[in-house]
Amino acid sequence: MQFENTKEFAQKLDKQDPLRSYRDQFLFPKINNEEVIYFTGNSLGLQPKTSKQYVDEIMQDWANLAVEGHFYAEKPWWDYHERLAGPLSKIVGAKPSEITVMNSLTVNLHLLMVSFYKPEGKRYKIICEEKAFPSDQYMIQSQVRFHGYEQEDAIVEIKKRKGEHNFRTEDILATIKEVGEECALILIGGVNYYTGQVFDMKKITQAGHDIGALVGWDLAHAAGNIALQLHDWDVDFAAWCSYKYMNSGPGNASGCFVHERFHNLKNITRFEGWWGTEKKSRFLMKPDFVPMPNADAWQLSNASVLSLAPYLASLLLFDEVGMESLLKKRNLIVSYLEYILLEIAKEVHGDFEIITPSNPEERGTQLSVFLHGEGRKLFDYLMKNGVVTDWREPNVIRLAPAPFYCSYEDMYNFGQLLKQGINAKK
Ligand SMILES: *Cc1c(COP(=O)(O)O)cnc(C)c1O
Q1: Counting C-beta atoms within 10 Å of the first and last residue's C-beta, which end of the chain has fewer, N or C?
Q2: Is 100 a residue whose pLDDT tops 80?
Q3: Which of 133, 138, 187, 198 has most ligand 1 atoms within 8 Å of CB, for mutation?
């Protein structure tokens, strides 16, 4: 498509957008009495208008039914979490039985490590990417120390080449081969939070299995953002938070994927709790743990339904729209944003360096851009004028035009504000 940097063109794209009505299903903060241009759906997604109603329903059931709500609420609480598995399985490419929702992301990664990081003999190393999201680094470091290893020895980081912004799949595969039978686990973020690079999860998972390692993925920046086929890619386990692209609310519950080949294993190590026991016998308060025959065996506590409610509301929107339409719009709006950035760079004689891969297969919703020569002042200008972005010192801006609620006109307007902001200080 031949793009144009005009309001008319952007509005034309909006008119043709099959998802345009969904913008109205979300609540936008206002600055100067106008809805903001929201680029931080990769950090905290906007609130769907339906979420409050789902939370209110639980508050009402609690008021009217109290403890009886566990069984007699409109959506009974005791198996409320099961409602999320169906819609989530379509988003991440899994069977519903392979999905469970509980706790938060870092907690779940730790819990999954109990089952999937089993260092033994000379096979004890974990391969991850360099400069992984800090929480993932802390989690992996503390895990290897917990098992009695030195983190400098037990953690192998995949490196980028000097002067390059992204990882090369060939280098990742080479590292995996090199570590070989010393590798117990590969655990990488499926989409890099800083650059937006999408990893070749299928190939990397296969390479990990070829050397006899298990392979897990942190999908915090991937779930609801890119096409995933966890089951078919033969991924062992994965976890994600739901408050980024999945719009479930701040700090909200995490989803987990456990491949079905690990269900119903007698001797699997796992930290267990009563919500992981067979439904039929859960309230018989028996001393023996009889696991659910699916990923719910990893559940521990009775579900915190107040946090699952807005997650469910959001997932139903995903279900209605379908990932395919979201990804279609995502590709177009991200390409349009990329075009706008390059046009504005020309107009202001600026040096913008997009560090996210330009190949649409290797990126999702996010573009990370070095605005060379610019600084904090520009960020403040944008913020004051209603552009909510993520700015990292010294001059990296991360822009994620979430296809659910961002418009093409937002992209055009952003370009104009960016130009004004840069010119204002000249
Ligand atoms: C956002 C994010 C987290 C956050 O973890 P919480 O436990 O939800 O605070 C962890 N890892 C990655 C890769 C993330 O992007």
Answers
A1: C
A2: yes
A3: 133
